[in-house]
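Predicting holo structure, S-adenosylmethionine bound.
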Amino acid sequence: MMKSQLKKLKHIWVLNFLRRTFNATRYYNKKYMEIIKWGIASNEDTNYTYDLTEGNMLYLAHIISFVVQKDNKTILAFINEAQNDTFLKDHIIREIQQSDLKKFADQQIRFGRRMGWYAMIRALKPRTVVETGVDKGLGSVIICAALLKNKEEGFEGRYYGTDINPKAGYLLTGKYRQVGEILYGDSIASLSTFKDTIDIFINDSDHSADYEYREYLTIKHLLTDDSIILGDNSHSTDKLAIFSTEEERNFLFFQESPLNHWYPGGGIGISFKTPKTSRQAQNKITPESNTDNTVSMQAASN
Ligand SMILES: C[S@@+](CC[C@H](N)C(=O)[O-])C[C@H]1O[C@@H](n2cnc3c(N)ncnc32)[C@H](O)[C@@H]1O
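Done. Tokens:
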């Protein structure tokens, strides 16, 4: 009697196990299809590119809107501006086609989280943006596109990328090169000789936790209360959150949701000190009055 009841229970457990694990696999099976499609259609073997889901873009806009204290519609307009920049997209496609590294890149241009970098630069009008880790230069050109738009509005800014690979940054040509340059060599070595105050610092080079943290320590003295750090490694390490705690900075994290791609997504760690409203209230700067170099970021008056 006891034996048959145990057997029955075991049987039910097995059924239950199968039902539960089958339900769990439904979250992942779609990914296998996406891997196969990507394996056929894409050339990329690292630094994957993809669009974000519509809802994810809205989340991104809300987070940036909070950090820069501008309304969400303004941030979404900046994101749309980048997405609809056909000159930029044509430039990237042309440079990829001409590059001897084209077999590692796709011809479809998808910016993912870099839209957030773009919107932040458009909103804050920084003078100096540093991005460590350039790869082909997708970040470089979208950042320089934002700086060029700011320039049209009277706010000059300059981009510095760092990369250890002498072939990195082949997309940074043409008009984008006018507002940006790449410092070749080890990122920490380049940052160690950097003299300017950094308004926006993007960490995306050697992705080891230790190296990432050392980059933050290297540029610590170049940060002001208005400086913002964007961590491209924050989905895999907590170093920017730790640095933010040590430096009494706020920290937020945006998680990407890639559209129709197997990659689970990276993110943007955002480290910022003062609420941007107080800075804007203190420094009502317009392009005309923007001659005082003691103010590191050119808060737009709109
Ligand atoms: C993930 S990719 C950068 C992607 C780029 N930020 C973008 O938006 O597409 C990382 C880059 O960091 C560079 N890198 C790795 N270690 C480095 C180091 N110690 N110093 C400078 N660059 C480094 C690699 O050569 C590679 O191009």
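The chain is about 45% helix and 10% strand.
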